[in-house]
Design brief:
Blueprint: E1 2-6, E2 9-12, E3 17-24, E4 32-38, E5 45-50, E6 57-59, E7 67-72, E8 77-82, E9 91-98, H1 109-112, E10 120-121, E11 125-130
Parallel strand pairs: 2-11
Antiparallel strand pairs: 1-3, 3-8, 4-5, 4-9, 5-6, 7-8, 9-10, 9-11
Length: 131
Amino acid sequence: VQLQASGGGLVQAGDSLTLSCAFSGGTVANYHMGWFRQAPGKDREFVAVINWSGGSTTYADSVKGRFTISRDNAKNTVYLQMSSLKPEDTAVYYCAADTRTFQAPFIDRIRAYSSAAYDFWGQGTQVTVSS
């Protein structure tokens, strides 16, 4: 399984940006996919997760209403649409796959919020939001 995150960049506060995560190998289309982020000097934190079909999503409170996670399994891609960006959104963003969620219809929030649940990670893409 390989994950490739892209789409990061330098934007101003209030702007929008869409990240992409292309996945290949295995049967990644059957698993939950998550986005995490890590700011300098801070732990990696959960951002959003989507189940295998795209029918169920969960967000961190800090991004709820501003970020939208989606997926197109036909294109082997997961997206993170970010709007109303704030300087505190500045971080390296990572996509990840939890391969122990084969076609699970619902998201276990306790599990999904933990980076330890995900066994494949992309390389990260930098998002910088200037004030």
